Amino acid sequence: MPARLSDAFKSHPVNLQLKHPDFNSLHELPDSYAWTNNDDHYPSSLSSFGADDSVPVIDLSEPNAIKLTGHACKTWGVFQVTNHGIPQKLLDDIESAGKSLFSLPVEQKLKAARPPDGISGYGFARISSFFRKLMWSEGFTIVGSPVDHFRQLWPQDYEKFWQNANFFTIMQVAKELNIIEEYEKEMKRLAGRLMWLMLGSLGISTEDVKWAGSKGEFKGASAALQLNSYPACPEPDRAMGLAAHTDSTLLTILYQNNTSGLQVLRDGTGWVTVPPMPGALVVNVGDLIHILSNGVYPSVLHRAVVNRTQHRLSIAYLFGPPASIQISPLSKLVGPSHPPLYRPITWNEYLGTKAKHFNKALSSVRLCAPLSSLADVNDHNSVKVV
Length: 386
Ligand SMILES: C=C1C[C@]23C[C@H]1CC[C@H]2[C@@]12CCC[C@@](C)(C(=O)O1)[C@H]2[C@@H]3C(=O)O
Ligand SMILES: O=C(O)CCC(=O)C(=O)O
Ligand SMILES: [Fe+2]
Fold this sequence. Notes:
Jelly Rolls; eight-stranded mixed sheet; 27% helix; binds fe (ii) ion
Protein backbone atom coordinates (compact mmCIF):
# COMPACT_ATOMS: atom_id res chain seq x y z
CA MET A 1 0.00 0.00 0.00
CA PRO A 2 1.44 3.43 -0.85
CA ALA A 3 2.40 5.63 2.07
CA ARG A 4 -0.19 8.10 3.25
CA LEU A 5 0.50 11.63 4.39
CA SER A 6 -0.90 10.77 7.80
CA ASP A 7 1.99 8.28 8.26
CA ALA A 8 4.67 10.93 7.69
CA PHE A 9 5.66 11.29 11.33
CA LYS A 10 5.28 7.64 12.41
CA SER A 11 9.07 7.26 12.54
CA HIS A 12 9.69 10.78 13.89
CA PRO A 13 7.50 11.21 16.93
CA VAL A 14 7.79 14.53 18.72
CA ASN A 15 6.73 14.90 22.30
CA LEU A 16 4.96 18.17 22.85
CA GLN A 17 2.56 17.07 25.54
CA LEU A 18 2.85 20.40 27.31
CA LYS A 19 -0.39 21.54 28.74
CA HIS A 20 -1.86 24.24 26.56
CA PRO A 21 -2.74 27.34 28.51
CA ASP A 22 -5.99 29.18 28.45
CA PHE A 23 -4.47 32.22 26.73
CA ASN A 24 -7.34 34.48 27.73
CA SER A 25 -6.61 33.98 31.40
CA LEU A 26 -2.97 35.16 31.12
CA HIS A 27 -2.56 38.86 31.84
CA GLU A 28 1.19 38.94 31.65
CA LEU A 29 3.66 37.03 29.57
CA PRO A 30 4.99 33.95 31.40
CA ASP A 31 8.78 33.54 31.14
CA SER A 32 8.32 30.39 29.07
CA TYR A 33 6.76 32.59 26.34
CA ALA A 34 9.28 35.46 26.48
CA TRP A 35 11.60 35.31 23.45
CA THR A 36 14.92 37.06 23.17
CA ASN A 37 16.88 37.45 19.92
CA ASN A 38 18.89 34.36 20.79
CA ASP A 39 15.84 32.14 20.86
CA ASP A 40 15.17 32.34 17.14
CA HIS A 41 17.35 30.87 14.41
CA TYR A 42 16.98 34.10 12.40
CA PRO A 43 17.27 37.83 13.11
CA SER A 44 14.09 38.98 14.77
CA SER A 45 14.17 42.73 14.99
CA LEU A 46 14.93 43.93 11.47
CA SER A 47 11.60 45.31 10.37
CA SER A 48 11.00 46.97 7.08
CA PHE A 49 9.03 50.13 6.54
CA GLY A 50 10.05 50.56 2.89
CA ALA A 51 6.85 51.52 1.08
CA ASP A 52 8.09 50.47 -2.34
CA ASP A 53 9.20 47.04 -1.19
CA SER A 54 5.90 45.30 -0.86
CA VAL A 55 4.79 41.76 -1.59
CA PRO A 56 3.47 41.46 -5.18
CA VAL A 57 -0.29 41.26 -5.74
CA ILE A 58 -1.35 39.28 -8.80
CA ASP A 59 -4.76 39.47 -10.43
CA LEU A 60 -5.29 35.91 -11.68
CA SER A 61 -7.72 37.08 -14.35
CA GLU A 62 -4.98 39.13 -16.06
CA PRO A 63 -3.49 37.69 -19.26
CA ASN A 64 0.08 38.12 -18.01
CA ALA A 65 -0.58 36.35 -14.69
CA ILE A 66 1.87 33.58 -15.62
CA LYS A 67 4.76 36.00 -16.15
CA LEU A 68 3.98 37.92 -12.99
CA THR A 69 3.80 34.66 -11.04
CA GLY A 70 7.21 33.55 -12.31
CA HIS A 71 8.74 36.89 -11.38
CA ALA A 72 7.16 36.86 -7.91
CA CYS A 73 8.40 33.30 -7.26
CA LYS A 74 11.91 34.15 -8.32
CA THR A 75 12.24 37.43 -6.46
CA TRP A 76 9.95 37.06 -3.42
CA GLY A 77 8.77 33.47 -2.93
CA VAL A 78 5.45 34.91 -1.84
CA PHE A 79 2.61 36.87 -3.44
CA GLN A 80 -1.05 37.67 -2.89
CA VAL A 81 -3.69 36.67 -5.42
CA THR A 82 -7.00 38.34 -6.27
CA ASN A 83 -9.73 37.10 -8.64
CA HIS A 84 -8.81 33.58 -7.56
CA GLY A 85 -12.33 32.24 -7.85
CA ILE A 86 -12.86 31.30 -4.18
CA PRO A 87 -16.23 32.77 -3.17
CA GLN A 88 -16.03 35.40 -0.42
CA LYS A 89 -18.84 33.57 1.38
CA LEU A 90 -16.66 30.46 1.71
CA LEU A 91 -13.78 32.54 3.13
CA ASP A 92 -16.16 34.13 5.67
CA ASP A 93 -17.60 30.72 6.52
CA ILE A 94 -14.22 29.04 7.07
CA GLU A 95 -13.19 31.93 9.29
CA SER A 96 -16.29 31.47 11.45
CA ALA A 97 -15.79 27.68 11.55
CA GLY A 98 -12.19 28.22 12.67
CA LYS A 99 -13.25 30.70 15.33
CA SER A 100 -15.83 28.34 16.76
CA LEU A 101 -13.30 25.46 16.91
CA PHE A 102 -10.79 27.59 18.83
CA SER A 103 -13.43 28.94 21.19
CA LEU A 104 -14.15 25.42 22.52
CA PRO A 105 -13.06 24.96 26.17
CA VAL A 106 -9.37 24.00 26.54
CA GLU A 107 -10.25 20.53 27.92
CA GLN A 108 -12.35 19.82 24.86
CA LYS A 109 -9.58 20.91 22.52
CA LEU A 110 -7.04 18.82 24.41
CA LYS A 111 -9.18 15.73 23.84
CA ALA A 112 -8.26 16.22 20.19
CA ALA A 113 -4.53 16.65 20.97
CA ARG A 114 -2.23 15.58 18.16
CA PRO A 115 -0.50 12.30 19.10
CA PRO A 116 3.35 12.46 19.14
CA ASP A 117 3.65 10.37 15.96
CA GLY A 118 0.59 11.82 14.21
CA ILE A 119 -0.02 14.67 11.83
CA SER A 120 -3.60 15.63 12.70
CA GLY A 121 -5.06 17.19 15.77
CA TYR A 122 -4.78 20.10 18.16
CA GLY A 123 -1.60 21.52 19.68
CA PHE A 124 1.50 23.65 19.37
CA ALA A 125 3.13 23.85 15.93
CA ARG A 126 5.25 20.77 15.28
CA ILE A 127 8.41 22.86 14.96
CA SER A 128 8.02 23.98 18.61
CA SER A 129 10.39 21.23 19.71
CA PHE A 130 13.30 23.14 18.10
CA PHE A 131 12.85 26.18 20.37
CA ARG A 132 13.46 26.84 24.04
CA LYS A 133 10.49 29.17 24.25
CA LEU A 134 6.83 28.53 23.56
CA MET A 135 4.88 30.16 20.75
CA TRP A 136 1.85 32.33 21.41
CA SER A 137 -0.50 30.31 19.25
CA GLU A 138 -2.53 27.15 18.96
CA GLY A 139 -3.40 25.12 15.90
CA PHE A 140 -5.59 22.38 14.47
CA THR A 141 -4.17 20.25 11.68
CA ILE A 142 -6.67 18.40 9.49
CA VAL A 143 -5.63 15.84 6.89
CA GLY A 144 -8.36 14.46 4.66
CA SER A 145 -12.03 14.21 5.49
CA PRO A 146 -13.16 16.46 8.35
CA VAL A 147 -15.91 13.95 9.23
CA ASP A 148 -13.35 11.18 9.82
CA HIS A 149 -11.51 13.69 11.92
CA PHE A 150 -14.42 14.46 14.08
CA ARG A 151 -14.80 10.74 14.70
CA GLN A 152 -11.11 10.16 15.38
CA LEU A 153 -10.45 13.26 17.41
CA TRP A 154 -13.39 12.96 19.73
CA PRO A 155 -14.06 9.17 19.68
CA GLN A 156 -15.81 9.02 23.05
CA ASP A 157 -17.96 11.97 22.18
CA TYR A 158 -18.76 11.06 18.60
CA GLU A 159 -21.58 8.54 19.14
CA LYS A 160 -22.86 10.36 22.19
CA PHE A 161 -22.90 13.59 20.31
CA TRP A 162 -25.17 12.38 17.52
CA GLN A 163 -27.46 10.65 20.03
CA ASN A 164 -27.79 13.49 22.50
CA ALA A 165 -27.25 16.74 20.67
CA ASN A 166 -30.22 18.84 19.84
CA PHE A 167 -31.25 19.54 16.29
CA PHE A 168 -29.67 22.99 16.27
CA THR A 169 -26.24 21.73 17.41
CA ILE A 170 -26.29 18.88 14.90
CA MET A 171 -27.10 21.25 12.07
CA GLN A 172 -24.38 23.62 13.22
CA VAL A 173 -21.68 20.91 13.34
CA ALA A 174 -22.82 19.39 10.04
CA LYS A 175 -22.57 22.82 8.47
CA GLU A 176 -19.03 23.36 9.78
CA LEU A 177 -17.86 19.95 8.57
CA ASN A 178 -19.36 20.74 5.22
CA ILE A 179 -17.58 24.09 5.04
CA ILE A 180 -14.20 22.49 5.78
CA GLU A 181 -14.84 19.87 3.10
CA GLU A 182 -15.89 22.49 0.56
CA TYR A 183 -12.88 24.67 1.44
CA GLU A 184 -10.47 21.74 0.90
CA LYS A 185 -12.08 21.03 -2.46
CA GLU A 186 -11.85 24.62 -3.66
CA MET A 187 -8.28 25.00 -2.38
CA LYS A 188 -7.19 21.88 -4.22
CA ARG A 189 -8.51 23.32 -7.47
CA LEU A 190 -6.79 26.65 -6.89
CA ALA A 191 -3.54 24.93 -5.87
CA GLY A 192 -3.52 23.01 -9.18
CA ARG A 193 -4.05 26.23 -11.09
CA LEU A 194 -1.25 27.99 -9.18
CA MET A 195 1.07 25.02 -9.78
CA TRP A 196 0.64 25.45 -13.54
CA LEU A 197 1.21 29.18 -13.34
CA MET A 198 4.45 28.51 -11.47
CA LEU A 199 5.61 25.55 -13.55
CA GLY A 200 4.36 27.11 -16.80
CA SER A 201 6.50 30.17 -16.16
CA LEU A 202 9.50 27.79 -16.04
CA GLY A 203 8.58 26.29 -19.42
CA ILE A 204 7.23 23.10 -17.86
CA SER A 205 4.13 21.47 -19.36
CA THR A 206 1.78 18.70 -18.25
CA GLU A 207 3.82 16.02 -20.06
CA ASP A 208 6.85 16.89 -17.92
CA VAL A 209 5.19 16.08 -14.60
CA LYS A 210 3.88 12.50 -14.77
CA TRP A 211 2.37 12.50 -11.27
CA ALA A 212 0.21 15.52 -12.15
CA GLY A 213 -2.04 13.24 -14.23
CA SER A 214 -2.81 13.34 -17.95
CA LYS A 215 -4.83 16.57 -17.66
CA GLY A 216 -2.47 18.06 -15.09
CA GLU A 217 -5.23 18.00 -12.50
CA PHE A 218 -3.03 16.76 -9.59
CA LYS A 219 -5.64 14.20 -8.70
CA GLY A 220 -3.44 12.20 -6.31
CA ALA A 221 -2.03 15.26 -4.54
CA SER A 222 -2.04 15.29 -0.75
CA ALA A 223 -2.67 18.26 1.49
CA ALA A 224 -3.12 19.35 5.08
CA LEU A 225 -5.31 22.14 6.41
CA GLN A 226 -3.76 24.08 9.28
CA LEU A 227 -5.93 26.42 11.33
CA ASN A 228 -3.82 28.83 13.37
CA SER A 229 -5.08 31.00 16.19
CA TYR A 230 -3.04 33.84 17.71
CA PRO A 231 -4.81 35.29 20.73
CA ALA A 232 -4.24 38.94 21.71
CA CYS A 233 -1.03 39.06 23.72
CA PRO A 234 -0.19 41.22 26.75
CA GLU A 235 3.44 41.74 25.62
CA PRO A 236 3.55 41.25 21.85
CA ASP A 237 7.09 42.59 21.43
CA ARG A 238 8.54 39.79 23.52
CA ALA A 239 6.31 37.01 22.16
CA MET A 240 6.42 34.96 18.96
CA GLY A 241 3.26 33.70 17.23
CA LEU A 242 4.91 31.20 14.91
CA ALA A 243 8.71 31.11 14.59
CA ALA A 244 10.44 31.64 11.26
CA HIS A 245 10.25 28.63 8.96
CA THR A 246 9.79 27.60 5.36
CA ASP A 247 6.86 25.32 4.51
CA SER A 248 7.61 21.69 3.64
CA THR A 249 5.14 21.86 0.76
CA LEU A 250 4.97 22.51 -2.96
CA LEU A 251 3.02 25.63 -2.20
CA THR A 252 0.85 26.98 0.61
CA ILE A 253 -2.31 29.04 0.20
CA LEU A 254 -2.99 31.17 3.24
CA TYR A 255 -6.11 32.99 4.27
CA GLN A 256 -5.60 35.55 7.03
CA ASN A 257 -8.35 37.44 8.80
CA ASN A 258 -8.22 41.23 8.89
CA THR A 259 -5.38 41.32 11.44
CA SER A 260 -1.80 41.54 10.26
CA GLY A 261 0.95 39.29 11.63
CA LEU A 262 2.47 37.40 8.70
CA GLN A 263 5.99 38.54 7.78
CA VAL A 264 8.44 37.30 5.17
CA LEU A 265 12.21 37.68 5.27
CA ARG A 266 13.55 39.59 2.30
CA ASP A 267 17.23 39.67 1.40
CA GLY A 268 18.74 43.03 2.16
CA THR A 269 15.54 44.44 3.63
CA GLY A 270 14.52 42.35 6.61
CA TRP A 271 11.08 41.29 7.75
CA VAL A 272 8.31 42.58 5.50
CA THR A 273 4.68 42.43 6.61
CA VAL A 274 2.20 40.80 4.25
CA PRO A 275 -0.79 43.08 4.83
CA PRO A 276 -4.24 41.48 4.97
CA MET A 277 -6.19 42.47 1.85
CA PRO A 278 -9.93 41.80 1.85
CA GLY A 279 -10.68 38.84 -0.38
CA ALA A 280 -7.05 38.14 -1.30
CA LEU A 281 -5.10 34.94 -0.55
CA VAL A 282 -1.38 34.65 0.19
CA VAL A 283 0.66 32.08 -1.76
CA ASN A 284 4.03 30.83 -0.43
CA VAL A 285 6.63 28.89 -2.36
CA GLY A 286 7.46 25.76 -0.35
CA ASP A 287 10.58 23.60 -0.12
CA LEU A 288 9.33 21.06 -2.69
CA ILE A 289 8.95 23.71 -5.44
CA HIS A 290 12.41 24.83 -4.40
CA ILE A 291 13.61 21.29 -5.15
CA LEU A 292 11.52 20.81 -8.34
CA SER A 293 12.76 24.13 -9.73
CA ASN A 294 16.35 23.25 -8.79
CA GLY A 295 16.54 26.33 -6.58
CA VAL A 296 15.19 28.78 -9.19
CA TYR A 297 12.09 29.40 -7.06
CA PRO A 298 13.42 29.50 -3.50
CA SER A 299 11.09 28.71 -0.64
CA VAL A 300 10.30 31.74 1.50
CA LEU A 301 11.18 32.15 5.16
CA HIS A 302 8.20 33.50 7.06
CA ARG A 303 6.84 33.89 10.59
CA ALA A 304 3.79 35.22 12.42
CA VAL A 305 3.98 37.95 15.04
CA VAL A 306 1.24 38.81 17.51
CA ASN A 307 -0.41 41.98 18.77
CA ARG A 308 -1.85 43.40 21.98
CA THR A 309 -5.51 43.83 21.13
CA GLN A 310 -6.68 41.66 18.28
CA HIS A 311 -7.17 37.96 17.94
CA ARG A 312 -5.65 36.75 14.67
CA LEU A 313 -6.73 33.71 12.70
CA SER A 314 -5.06 32.16 9.68
CA ILE A 315 -5.89 29.10 7.63
CA ALA A 316 -3.11 27.47 5.65
CA TYR A 317 -3.73 24.95 2.89
CA LEU A 318 -0.47 23.00 2.72
CA PHE A 319 -0.34 21.45 -0.73
CA GLY A 320 2.01 18.66 -1.72
CA PRO A 321 2.46 15.79 -4.20
CA PRO A 322 1.14 12.24 -3.67
CA ALA A 323 2.88 11.17 -0.44
CA SER A 324 5.12 8.48 -1.93
CA ILE A 325 6.13 10.03 -5.27
CA GLN A 326 9.79 10.93 -5.71
CA ILE A 327 10.33 14.68 -6.12
CA SER A 328 13.54 15.83 -7.77
CA PRO A 329 14.69 18.76 -9.94
CA LEU A 330 12.69 18.67 -13.20
CA SER A 331 14.75 17.18 -16.01
CA LYS A 332 14.01 20.15 -18.30
CA LEU A 333 15.72 22.41 -15.79
CA VAL A 334 18.92 20.44 -15.40
CA GLY A 335 21.80 19.98 -17.81
CA PRO A 336 25.59 20.15 -18.02
CA SER A 337 25.64 23.77 -16.88
CA HIS A 338 22.85 23.26 -14.35
CA PRO A 339 23.52 20.05 -12.43
CA PRO A 340 20.70 18.82 -10.19
CA LEU A 341 21.19 20.35 -6.75
CA TYR A 342 18.87 18.04 -4.78
CA ARG A 343 18.45 14.30 -4.53
CA PRO A 344 15.04 12.68 -5.14
CA ILE A 345 12.84 12.52 -2.05
CA THR A 346 9.18 11.73 -1.31
CA TRP A 347 6.95 14.17 0.58
CA ASN A 348 6.68 11.83 3.54
CA GLU A 349 10.42 11.38 3.67
CA TYR A 350 10.92 15.14 3.48
CA LEU A 351 8.48 15.75 6.33
CA GLY A 352 10.46 13.24 8.40
CA THR A 353 13.69 15.07 7.48
CA LYS A 354 12.10 18.36 8.55
CA ALA A 355 11.00 16.79 11.82
CA LYS A 356 14.59 15.77 12.43
CA HIS A 357 16.63 18.66 11.02
CA PHE A 358 14.17 21.59 10.85
CA ASN A 359 15.94 24.47 9.05
CA LYS A 360 18.73 22.20 7.84
CA ALA A 361 16.27 19.92 6.02
CA LEU A 362 16.72 21.45 2.58
CA SER A 363 20.52 21.45 2.76
CA SER A 364 20.44 17.88 4.03
CA VAL A 365 18.97 16.76 0.69
CA ARG A 366 21.39 18.87 -1.34
CA LEU A 367 23.66 16.89 -3.62
CA CYS A 368 26.75 19.07 -3.75
CA ALA A 369 27.60 21.45 -0.98
CA PRO A 370 27.96 24.93 -2.42
CA LEU A 371 31.52 26.26 -2.54
CA SER A 372 31.78 29.16 -0.16
CA SER A 373 32.60 31.53 -3.01
CA LEU A 374 29.54 30.36 -4.93
CA ALA A 375 27.27 30.17 -1.91
CA ASP A 376 23.70 29.56 -2.95
CA VAL A 377 22.00 32.63 -1.59
CA ASN A 378 18.67 30.99 -2.31
CA ASP A 379 19.30 28.30 0.24
CA HIS A 380 18.38 29.73 3.64
CA ASN A 381 19.92 26.76 5.29
CA SER A 382 23.45 27.20 4.14
CA VAL A 383 23.69 30.95 4.33
CA LYS A 384 22.32 33.15 7.08
CA VAL A 385 20.22 35.82 5.45
CA VAL A 386 20.70 39.11 7.25
C1 LIG B 1 2.13 18.94 5.84
C2 LIG B 1 2.72 19.48 6.90
C3 LIG B 1 3.49 20.74 6.86
C4 LIG B 1 3.67 21.07 8.33
C5 LIG B 1 3.88 19.69 8.89
C6 LIG B 1 2.71 18.91 8.26
C7 LIG B 1 1.39 19.30 8.95
C8 LIG B 1 1.48 20.68 9.63
C9 LIG B 1 2.36 21.71 8.91
C10 LIG B 1 2.84 22.86 9.80
C11 LIG B 1 1.84 24.02 9.91
C12 LIG B 1 2.44 25.13 10.82
C13 LIG B 1 3.91 25.45 10.47
C14 LIG B 1 4.71 24.14 10.28
C15 LIG B 1 6.19 24.46 10.06
C16 LIG B 1 4.43 23.18 11.42
O1 LIG B 1 5.04 23.12 12.48
O2 LIG B 1 3.31 22.43 11.09
C17 LIG B 1 4.11 23.35 9.13
C18 LIG B 1 4.80 22.05 8.69
C19 LIG B 1 5.82 22.29 7.58
O3 LIG B 1 5.54 22.98 6.61
O4 LIG B 1 6.92 21.79 7.75
O1 LIG C 1 -0.39 32.62 10.45
C1 LIG C 1 0.31 32.88 9.48
O2 LIG C 1 0.20 33.93 8.87
C2 LIG C 1 1.38 31.93 9.04
C3 LIG C 1 0.98 30.48 9.16
C4 LIG C 1 2.02 29.56 8.61
O3 LIG C 1 3.09 29.98 8.25
C5 LIG C 1 1.72 28.12 8.48
O4 LIG C 1 0.65 27.66 8.92
O5 LIG C 1 2.59 27.42 7.92
FE1 LIG D 1 4.19 28.48 7.12
